[in-house]
Structure formats: structure tokens, C-alpha cells
Specification:
Elements: H1 8-19, H2 21-26, H3 29-44, H4 51-76, E1 79-82, E2 95-97, E3 100-103, H5 113-123, H6 128-147, H7 153-158, H8 166-198, H9 210-222, H10 226-229, H11 235-250, E4 252-257, E5 270-276, E6 280-290, E7 300-305, E8 308-309, E9 315-316, E10 319-326, H12 339-357, H13 372-375, H14 377-386, H15 389-392, H16 407-416, H17 421-438, H18 448-460, H19 476-479, H20 486-502, H21 509-518, H22 528-533
Parallel strand pairs: 6-10
Antiparallel strand pairs: 1-3, 2-3, 4-5, 5-6, 7-10, 8-9
Length: 534
């Protein structure tokens, strides 16, 4: 791809096309947009530069790729500490290696405050090599952006997105932060009271407390033990629920198909045909849902083949994979999902439907191949359906008795998600703000750790812990450089779509058709803001 993006002849040919007003006016809007997107790809790769600068841009791209891979690896590596440094009664929480203990994560759910504190301070202790990788990565990205004519890397990364520029992102995050601040303070006060109750000697709220005490508050208030819910969310029931929702909303059904020998990479992968009641087959979804020893532990959706208009007039049907990490069925019970797993299934299926219903002429803009801050809208919208009693009531049945999930249990679950939601979102605003500063004006005024400290205290509100460098574990800086805000902006849009289109009736067929026509059908082939307006 980077070789094509630096092909001068190809670029000149495209430039001639874009300059020809007669030809351009004869093209349909999607073709014009794809031509402009290709030109944008050429320009951010430095095609318009003289040969010496173009070589420099190519070398910078290669170096950035290497740094990204090295940094990503470094975000997961454990830190070691001499076991005698830690009190004996907490050592068993960490992996022993001779005289050392390995700390491979934050132990955020551990009830022992001391274990969480130790894990936080050890796992986030700065690593000099990782720090220099991050500094070089940020500086190289900035050099590349300046070389190809942008003020900062953020300006380059945000062109063509819904936000369009760093200024809009800054305003969005500030507005969100202002709206959240009083609620966040209340959340922190509730957590502090809970910590005081459980640990009176040491009741100051610290960053390692937030995930744990928000969970304690949720559990105490609403008693949402996942074990109470799992029996109502068998995988079969959840898939039936999705099938029923898509059928009512979009006229679509999911059918299991037999796979041919050698077609799938594991025998437990299931193939679903997505069929419309009048249009017929729309595409295929391969469901790789179960845990396996060699399988990456992440929930995701990816495209095997994008949809596009073929030269013979037929449509090339999209093929995608949905990957989850669900437990397998046991002899006595089918695969049972926790409420979080059920919501994730709906989320990823939102991405799959975006891919299945996109009907673009070109693969370049098919389905989820759209700006990052728009790509999460269909998937987050599905979370709203997963949290609505009218939808859940259609499929949540106890796998043994067939009894429906009581309404008060659904209400408790939905209410529990609001507990400490402001503080949780404020944390995301802090990450997004940090990402913007790191990819803003260079050279940076201070070290990345000083910027972290300043931003954490200003935007998040809980104190920075000396001798920690959380940014060195911030793996999203690789894939979402200058775009971490995207999830928050997608959530804002999804919430608007839900409230205005589906909150009144989540099964409204006319609204489902409109949503498909205005949003899902275009993939990235239309300006995202126009799709939102539509």
C-alpha cells in the first residue's frame, strides 16, 4: 500500500482527473469522494515533495512502523521487583521467579488496597527504553506531518474525520469535561466514603482505587452478580435475540450454513448467511466465538472481503469475521454469557451489520472503512438496544426453565451502569486529551511524564503518583494516534441516533430502513457529517 501511495505516475494521472471539471461533474458523488480520498492518501505520504524529501517521508514511515511495533510489545511486558521489597502476605498475588516477582498488570479488581497500590506502582514504573521509543515515535510522527505540509500530526490524522481538526476535538473534550465535572466529583466522593468504610486507616482516593470502588458501589447498590444473569443469556438465546431484532428492524435473518472442508481455521467457527427478505443473500459472517489457547484474547470484527460493484454488474458480497472470547459449553449447560459479554456480542454485531449492509461501488469505502470517529457509531448504537428492556425481554430466557428475565433485574442492570459513569467517562476524556497534546505542537514543552502529571490533575482529578509513567502502557497511542477521542464522539452520535430514532420504538421498521439508507449503506463513501444529518 505504501508503495502505491508513493507512485508518482499514478498520482499525476489522478491529479489530471481531479482537475478536469467536465469529467468530475460526470462522476457520481461516491466516485468523486473515493478519488479525493486517494489523493489525500498520496499527499499524506509526501507524493508532492521533491525526490529527496519523498525518500525522507518513506524512511520516516518505515521507522514509525518499527517504533509502533516495538512500543506495542513494550506496553504488555511485565515489570520485575525483588520479592523482599513487598510485604510477605501479598506476594502470592504475583508470579514468582527466583528472588523476583513479576507484575504483569494493574490487578484492578483485587479487593486488597495494598495489592492494587503495589501493582500500580510497579507495573507503571518507567522503563527507559520504552520512554525513548515513545519520544522518538511522537517526534517522528510530527516530522512526517510537517514534511507533508501539516502543522502537527493531529492535523494530518484528523483530516477527513467527523471532527476534521484538533480545534474541534479540543472543544468537544472541554465541553464534555465541563458537563461531567460536578458529577465526577460526586462519584469520587462516593468512592472515598466507600474506601473510608472499608479501609479507615488510609482513605485517600488514588488512581488504583477508581475501577475497584466503582465496582463495589455498583454491586452494593444493585446486587448485579453476573452469576444471577448468565443463566438467562445463553449464546443461543442471544443469537435468537439478534436475529429477531434485525428481522423486525431491517427485514434481515441470520442462517447457519455448513462449511466446506478446509474453509475455516478452527472446527468451532460457525458460518452465518445474512439474508434479506426480498433482496436475498447480503454476505457472510464467520463467528469465531470461543476461547482457544493460541487465540488472541480480544473481541473484534475484521473484513476478509469487502463489498463492491463488479465490472459485470454483480455485487461482490462482503465476508467478515466476528471474534469473541466466550467460555465453551459444559456437559450440563450451554455457553452462558455475562451481561458484559452479551453487550459485547451486540456491539461487534453492529460492526458486522455495517459491513453487511454497505452497498458501495468501491472496496476502499465499504462498510466499516470509514473515518475512525464514525466507525464506532453503529456498534455503540447496538449497545443501546442491548440495554433496553423491550429488546432484552424478547430473548432473555432461563436455559433450564424458559422463565423470562424479570423486568426489575433488567432495570437494576441498566441503573447499575449509571453508577460512577461520570468518573469513568472523565477518565476517557483524560486519555483523549493526553493523546491530543502528545500529537500536538512539537517540540513538546515538557517531558511526556510531566505532561501526563499536569493533564491528569487538570482533566481527571485524581493525583499523579510519583515515579509512574502510565503513558508507556497506553497501547492505543499506536492504532489511535490523535484519534483516541473517536470512541467518545461516536458515543455522542450513537446516543443522538438512539434518542431521536429508536428510543420510542426499538423495532420501528420505517426508522430501521431510514437508518440503513442514510447511514449504513454508504460505508465511508459519504461525508460522515452528512450521514449523521440524514
Amino acid at each position: 500500500l505504501s508503495r502505491l501511495n508513493t507512485d508518482v505516475e499514478l498520482c499525476q494521472s489522478l491529479r489530471r482527473l481531479l482537475a478536469d471539471e467536465i469529467v468530475m461533474s460526470s462522476l457520481d458523488p461516491e466516485t468523486r469522494r473515493v478519488a479525493e480520498l486517494f489523493m489525500f492518501d498520496f499527499e499524506i505520504s509526501g507524493i508532492h515533495l521533491d525526490e529527496e524529501k519523498r525518500k525522507k517521508a518513506v524512511n520516516l514511515n518505515v521507522r514509525i512502523l518499527d517504533l509502533c511495533n516495538e512500543f506495542l510489545t513494550g506496553t504488555h511486558l511485565p515489570n520485575k521487583i525483588d520479592k523482599h521489597v513487598l510485604p510477605e502476605h501479598i506476594r502470592y498475588n504475583f508470579t514468582a521467579e527466583g528472588n523476583y516477582l513479576q507484575v504483569a498488570g494493574l490487578h484492578a479488581d483485587c479487593p486488597d488496597d495494598l495489592v492494587r497500590e503495589a501493582a500500580y506502582k510497579i507495573f507503571l514504573y518507567p522503563n527507559a527504553e520504552q520512554l525513548s521509543r515513545l519520544e522518538e515515535l511522537l517526534a517522528s510522527r510530527n516530522s512526517l506531518a510537517e514534511l507533508v505540509g501539516y502543522d502537527t500530526f493531529a492535523h494530518r490524522a484528523l483530516q477527513g474525520t467527523m471532527a476534521r481538526n484538533p480545534e474541534t476535538v479540543r472543544q468537544f473534550l472541554e465541553l464534555l469535561s465541563d458537563q461531567l465535572s460536578k458529577r465526577t466529583q460526586k462519584d469520587f466522593e462516593m468512592m472515598t466514603k466507600m474506601k473510608m468504610k472499608l479501609n479507615p486507616q488510609n482513605s485517600k482516593l488514588m488512581p488504583w482505587d477508581h475501577p475497584y470502588y466503582s465496582g463495589v458501589l455498583r454491586a452494593e447498590r444493585y446486587n448485579i452478580d453476573p452469576g444471577l444473569y448468565c443463566p438467562f443469556f445463553s449464546l443461543g438465546a442471544c443469537m435468537e435475540g439478534l436475529n429477531s431484532l434485525f428481522s423486525q428492524l431491517l427485514g434481515i435473518s441470520l442462517y447457519a450454513e455448513q462449511t466446506r472442508k478446509g474453509e475455516v481455521w478452527s472446527e468451532d467457527v460457525r458460518k452465518l448467511a445474512v439474508v434479506h427478505e426480498t433482496e436475498g443473500l447480503l454476505g457472510y459472517i464467520y463467528c469465531d466465538f470461543f476461547q482457544r489457547p493460541d487465540k488472541p484474547h480480544q473481541d473484534c470484527h475484521f473484513t476478509v472481503r469487502g463489498g463492491r460493484q463488479k465490472e459485470n454488474g454483480e455485487y461482490q458480497l462482503p465476508v467478515v469475521v466476528l471474534m469473541l472470547s466466550l467460555p465453551r459449553s459444559t456437559r450440563g449447560a450451554p455457553t452462558l454469557l455475562s451481561p458484559g459479554m452479551m453487550e459485547n456480542l451486540f456491539h461487534e454485531m453492529g460492526h458486522a451489520m455495517h459491513s453487511m449492509l454497505g452497498r458501495t461501488r468501491y472496496q476502499h469505502v465499504t462498510g466499516t472503512r470509514c473515518p475512525t470517529d464514525f466507525a464506532e457509531v453503529p456498534s455503540i448504537l447496538m449497545e443501546y438496544f442491548a440495554n433496553d428492556y423491550r429488546v432484552v425481554n424478547q430473548f432473555a430466557r432461563h436455559y433450564k426453565t424458559g422463565q423470562p428475565l424479570p423486568k426489575n433485574m433488567v432495570s437494576r442492570l441498566c441503573e447499575s451502569k449509571k453508577v460512577c459513569a461520570a468518573a469513568d467517562m472523565q477518565l476517557q476524556v483524560f486519555y483523549a486529551a493526553l493523546d491530543q497534546i502528545y500529537h500536538g505542537k512539537h517540540p513538546l514543552k515538557k517531558s511526556t511524564t510531566e505532561i501526563l502529571k499536569e493533564t491528569q490533575e487538570k482533566v481527571y482529578g485524581l493525583p499523579y503518583v510519583p515515579n509512574t509513567a502510565w503513558q508507556l502502557r497506553f497501547s492505543h497511542l499506536v492504532g489511535y494516534g490523535a484519534k483516541y477521542y473517536s470512541y467518545l464522539m461516536s458515543r455522542a452520535v450513537a446516543s443522538m441516533v438512539w434518542k431521536q430514532c429508536f428510543a420510542q420504538d426499538p423495532f420501528d421498521r420505517a426508522m430501521g430502513e431510514r437508518y440503513r439508507r442514510e447511514m449504513l449503506a454508504h460505508g465511508g463513501g459519504k461525508e460522515p457529517i452528512l450521514m449523521v444529518e440524514g
